[in-house]
């Protein structure tokens, strides 16, 4: 998509509405866009903390937002959650300023690795490598030893909160990438395709749950929450309609297993949930009795 260049209007023209086109726009998508397919471009990502949104609006559009969310002081719970990180490993008590310095450096390093991984995937087209790198970073965290100026400081392990805006972006990438891997499975690999669809559905549910939680505290997140719930529903429908279930039924008939010994994965999952729930209730009663 190309849009003609133009001279930036004055602030009064921006306030009144300026009927002209913007500069050239380049769309980057990890999913192929078909000819004639609609593509929605948002001016700002609402799943970013306030400081990033304000910086982006000012840099790109010379605009200072004065909405309730941007004016809230101190920052609202949603913006706190969108930039929350965890320090999971540290033997010594360091000054808060030093810890915050490494925390900011770790977040910047997370962002650089995510961006480079997505760029590599778009150039090379290897979804397996993309998934492994992003999942490894989310699960293993970022050690301060990988950051500049950490000599003489004991090991610190920083990890992103599931609500962190980088975590949400990473899960969005994983959801799409696993969906692509499921569609690329050839005939005779129904199990692999099913596993990829299951991973895609899992990440879509994680995104839907996270954005739903944010929406309960910030109404402006309703569009993101609705979009992720739609994606989660479509992923679950795709999972239910998978030919893998027919493959399981055929294997059962061929092996002549007795019906009494059969349990589908969904029933087994429900049984596990009931056992876990019962165990939690038992521990709760024991705790109440002791207290």
Account of the protein in words:
The chain has 291 residues and is mainly alpha-helical. The chain has 2 domains: 11-242, Serine Threonine Protein Phosphatase 5, Tetratricopeptide repeat (Alpha Horseshoe); 250-283, no CATH class. It has 11 helices and 3 strands, in the order H-H-H-H-E-H-H-E-E-H-H-H-H-H. The chain has helices at residues 11-16, 50-61, 68-71, 77-81, 96-124, 127-140, 165-183, 190-215, 222-240, 244-255, 265-290; strands at 85-89, 142-143, 157-160. A 3-stranded antiparallel sheet has the order 1-3-2, sandwiched between helices. Helix 5 runs antiparallel to helix 6 and helix 7 (165-183) packs antiparallel against helix 8 (190-215). The protein is globular. It starts with 10 loop residues before the first helix and ends with a helix. The model is unreliable at 1-20 (pLDDT under 50).
Summarize the structure.
The chain folds into two domains: 11-242, Alpha Horseshoe (Serine Threonine Protein Phosphatase 5, Tetratricopeptide repeat); 250-283, no CATH class. It is 59% helix and 4% strand. It has helices spanning 11-16, 50-61, 68-71, 77-81, 96-124, 127-140, 165-183, 190-215, 222-240, 244-255, 265-290, and strands at residues 85-89, 142-143, 157-160.
């Amino acid at each position: 998509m190309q849009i003609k260049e133009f001279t930036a209007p004055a602030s009064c023209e921006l306030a009144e509405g300026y009927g002209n086109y913007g500069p050239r726009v380049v769309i980057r998508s990890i999913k192929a866009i078909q000819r004639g397919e609609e593509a929605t471009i948002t001016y700002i990502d609402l799943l970013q903390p306030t400081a990033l949104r304000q910086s982006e609006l000012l840099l790109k559009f010379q605009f200072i937002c004065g909405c309730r969310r941007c004016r809230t002081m101190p920052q609202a719970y949603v913006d706190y959650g969108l930039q929350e990180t965890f320090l999971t490993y540290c033997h010594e008590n360091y000054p808060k300023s030093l810890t915050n310095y490494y925390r900011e450096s770790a977040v910047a390093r997370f962002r650089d690795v995510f961006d480079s991984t997505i760029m590599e995937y778009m150039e090379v087209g290897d979804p397996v490598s993309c998934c492994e790198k992003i999942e490894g970073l989310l699960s293993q965290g970022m050690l301060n030893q990988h950051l500049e100026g950490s000599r003489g400081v004991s090991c610190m392990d920083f990890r992103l909160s599931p609500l962190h805006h980088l975590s949400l972006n990473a899960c969005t990438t994983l959801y799409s990438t696993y969906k692509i891997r499921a569609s690329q499975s050839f005939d005779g690999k129904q199990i692999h395709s099913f596993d990829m669809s299951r991973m895609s559905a899992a990440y879509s549910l994680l995104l839907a749950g996270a954005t739903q939680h944010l929406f309960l505290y910030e109404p402006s997140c309703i569009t993101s929450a609705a979009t992720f719930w739609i994606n989660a529903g479509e992923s679950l429908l795709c999972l239910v309609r998978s030919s893998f279930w027919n493959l399981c039924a055929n294997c059962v008939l061929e092996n002549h297993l007795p019906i009494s010994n059969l349990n589908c994965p969904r029933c087994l999952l429900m049984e596990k949930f009931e056992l876990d729930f019962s165990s939690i209730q038992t521990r709760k009663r024991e705790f109440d009795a002791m207290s």
